[in-house]
Each structure stands twice: as C-alpha cells, then as structure tokens.
C-alpha cells in the first residue's frame, strides 16, 4: 500500500506512465480472456438475464395492450426495456465476484504489493469484460426485438446525447459494483450483499419499470442518485422520452456521478486497507 | 425412515450452527432476501397503479401467486440449499467422501448447506399471503385452509425437485459454477405472473417441460378457484412427486457416470 501511495503521490516520468498504460491494457485483455475461458457459464448467465428481460417484455405487452400509460406506448416501452437490458449487462459477471473472493481468501495481499494501482487495474479488467458483455447483450436484444416485431430507431434529435449517455453507463456501473465488492473487507459475506445491490440498482435505475411509474419520492431520489444514469437515462434518450434541457441535465448528472463515484471508491479503498486482516503468512 | 429423518435433521442442524457462527452473515442474508422480494412487490404495485387488472388478474391475486413463489423459494433454500453446492462438489471430486458414509448421498448433498435467506423469504411470503387473503374474494372454510397448506407444501416440492434436477447438470457439464441451474431458476421466475401473458411456447415450456408454473400460478388458481387453471392446480401434489422423482433419477444417473477428479 505504501508503495502504491508513494507512486501516486509524485508525477510519474513519461516512460513509467507508458509502462503503466501497457500494463492496464494487458489487464483488460486478461479480463476478457478469463471470461472467455468460462464462456459456457457466462452464456448461461446471459440466458438467465434474458429470461428476466423476457418476462418484463411480456408483462408490459399485456399492460400496454389497453393503451399507453405515463406516456409510454408498447413500441417505446420495448425500446426502453431493451436498452436498459443492455446497460444492465455491463460489469455484471466478473469484477465484484472475483474481488470478493480474493478479499475473502486473502489473495488481495498479492494485489497490494503490485506496482500498479488497484482501482485502475480492476477498471481495466472490467472494461475488457464489458466489451464482450455489451456485444452479447446487443445480440440478445436484437434477437428479442426481432421476435417482438421490431423496435423503433433511436430518436435522431437526442442521438448524440444517447451515445454519450450510453458510454457513461460503464463508469457508473463500475463505481457501484467496485464499491460493493470492497464492502467484503468489512462483511466477509458477499452473496447477500450482491443480491441486495442488484435489487436496489434494478429498482432505482428504472431497469424493470420506467421511474415515472414509481412513487414520487423514488423518482426524486433517483434523479439525484447515480442510479438513474445506469439504465433510465440512456433508455429514455433512446426512446425519445427525454429532450431539451432535461436531457442535457440528465447526462451531466451521469458525468458528475462517474467522477464522484471514482473519488468515493478511492476513499473507501484507503479505509478498507486499514481494516484488512490477512490470515496465515 | 425415522433414522433418515433424524440424520437429515442432524446434518442440517450442524450447518445451522456453523452458519450462525457468523452472525453478521445471518442478518445480511435474511435482510437481503426481504429486500429482494420486497422490491418485487413494489414493482408489481407500480404496474397495477396504472392498470386495474392483467388478463383478468387483479393486484392482490397476483400478490398471492408471487407469495407462492417466495414461500417455495424460502422452504427450498432453508431445507435443501445443498443442491446448489453440487457443481463445486462434483468439480472438485468431493463427492468421494460422501459416497463412503452410510447415509444416502443425495440427502447428504441436500443437507450440506442452509440458506438463511430462506428465512427472510418465509417471513415476507407469509406476510404477503396474510395481506392478500384479506383483499381477494375469498371465503374461509377449514377445507380451504387445509387445501392451501397442502398446496404450499406441494409447490415447495415442485421447486425442490426442479432445483435438484437442474443442478444435476453438474454431472454432465463439469463446470464449478451452477450457472445452468441458475438460468433455469430465472426461467422459473416467469411463474411470478399469470402465465397467460406469455406466448404459447413459453406457456407449454413452463407447464409441461420444466413445470415451474406448478410452484405458483396453478396452485394459486386452485386456492382462488379460478376456472380451468384451478383443476390443474389441484394436481400440484402429483406434479411435486413427479419433479422430486425426476431430480432423484437425474442424481442417480449422474452418480453412475461420476468419476471423481483426476489425481
């Protein structure tokens, strides 16, 4: 930890910085490779979330067959849910699970003495994995769209913002997932934490039901919390339900929270290191 | 038979004590279960805020279906969570030790873990039933109550049998993760809603292929005495026996091709 902190404290010479960049790039590749090594498991995991999305789609089809609700008709809702599905697939299969195991078993001690930053390392790995997660999820979403009679194209007016917003989903999800992984330093249990985290994100990000359907206080809370940016914002931009100033503000909130979560995670990491106990030697 | 039950209780009891050593775990698991299922109810509520009924099912009736899922899930995680350890047990060749002991290996596997999230599920599930029966059109009679209790137990049997069946895939897939079983479990979650909302293919799959619908939709229909679904719901105990038999058979077949891990 001392070493890592010292490295961070002073500006790095240019060639060291290049070396680090190379290290992170190969970590991203390694993350992707270890996912591919267990590809069957990953694909079954994807199948599981596909079933989840499918039940939502069918349910909303029944609900909206009677006419639009809260400004959503069936084609819009289809688009909304599928974008939310792709967003929700990011950083969902590797990062926290592996972190939690290494913390529980004490292997994190090895990570501490590595001459690279822990948070950037996990970020790089997750990025490598996310490329594959996003690819698979898009294929699934396109399949589902074909099955359900197609989805409308993205709204051309907000398309630029939609792209920015979609890219910001990654740092937001990484921040939350990374921090929930760090909680294992205190709890030692991860299964329960993970379940609770997934449930909370699912509700507050509007992944199953657009936030306008929820009680007012949840809507207000979600607008200021990082959650809406993890599914609702890009999905609303895609389906054209968010425009003008509100759209720009929502994307700005995403950007601010991306940076904010990163700094929060930094603070949490240094608290966790003081808390760490490694058994045996 | 008495010996079997007694030993099962003892094995499970050992797990309970082991788990309770970590008190924080107990609380995290129980509370997270309540949170997860509670959010499911919030979601249902949000949908019914904008529409009075889905395919003829009103809010509290769907809550009853949902409660059936929550309770079956609770009973199966409390008493037979060990099924989910099969993937690791088989992959690491740990089944060897179990085969040496004078107690059926299947029961040793099933009792090898206790899921305290089941407790949270049970508390919430019973609460949901209590709230739902006050709102649905429902006349109390001793027969009705007895039927309800039998159906809840049978529904849990369906879930336990299917859990075992899908987890037995570990004998063939040999991966240390139970992702196949997990994906089928999520498929089963489709039975949280009236299955009439799905397309024909899904309906057939969830009724006849992996009959998760008998964990919730059909028994709930039987309690509410709702049309043809009710008649099928009365068959739930038979379906439970069939599912448990399927699970046990898959385990037997898997065991016959189990060859430990390389040494």
Provide a descriptive summary of the structure in words.
The complex is a heterodimer of chains A (281) and B (263). With 281 residues, chain A is mainly α. Chain A has one domain. Helix content of chain A is 75%, strand content 0%. Chain A has 13 helices and no strands. Chain A has helices at 2-9, 14-37, 39-64, 74-89, 95-105, 108-113, 118-147, 159-182, 184-187, 191-204, 216-224, 232-238, 244-275. Chain A starts with a helix and ends in a 6-residue tail after the last helix. The mean pLDDT of chain A is 87. With 263 residues, chain B is mainly alpha-helical. Chain B has one domain (2-256). In chain B, 72% of the residues lie in helices and 2% in strands. Chain B contains 14 helices and 2 strands; from the N terminus they run H-H-E-E-H-H-H-H-H-H-H-H-H-H-H-H. In chain B, strands 1-2 form a two-stranded antiparallel sheet. In chain B, helix 8 runs parallel beside helix 14 and helix 12 (217-223) packs across helix 13. The longest helix of chain B has 27 residues, at 23-49. Chain B is globular. Chain B starts with a helix and ends in a 7-residue tail after the last helix. The relative contact order of chain B is 0.14. At the A-B interface, helix 3 and helix 10 of A face helix 2 and helix 10 of B. Chain B: The chain crosses the membrane at residues 26-48, 63-93, 114-133, 145-173, 193-214, 234-255. Chain B: It comes from Plantactinospora alkalitolerans.
Distance between the first and last residues' Cα of chain B: 37 Å
Q: Tell me the structural class of chain A.
A: mainly alpha
Overall mean pLDDT of chain A: 87
What is the count of distinct domains of chain B? 1
User: Uncertain regions of chain A: pLDDT < 50 for 5+ in a row?
Assistant: none
Largest interface: A-B, 39 and 39 residues
Number of strands of chain B: 2
Number of strands of chain A: 0
The overall average pLDDT of chain B, rounded, is 91
Secondary structure class of chain B reads mainly alpha
Question: H/E element string of chain B?
Answer: HHEEHHHHHHHHHHHH
Q: End-to-end span of chain A in angstroms?
A: 17 Å
- The oligomerization state is heterodimer
Count up the domains of chain A: 1
Shape of chain B: globular
> Number of DSSP helices of chain B?
14
InterPro entries (chain B): ABC-2_transporter-like
Organism (chain B): Plantactinospora alkalitolerans
Keywords (chain B): Membrane, Transmembrane, Transmembrane helix
Protein name (chain B): ABC-2 family transporter protein
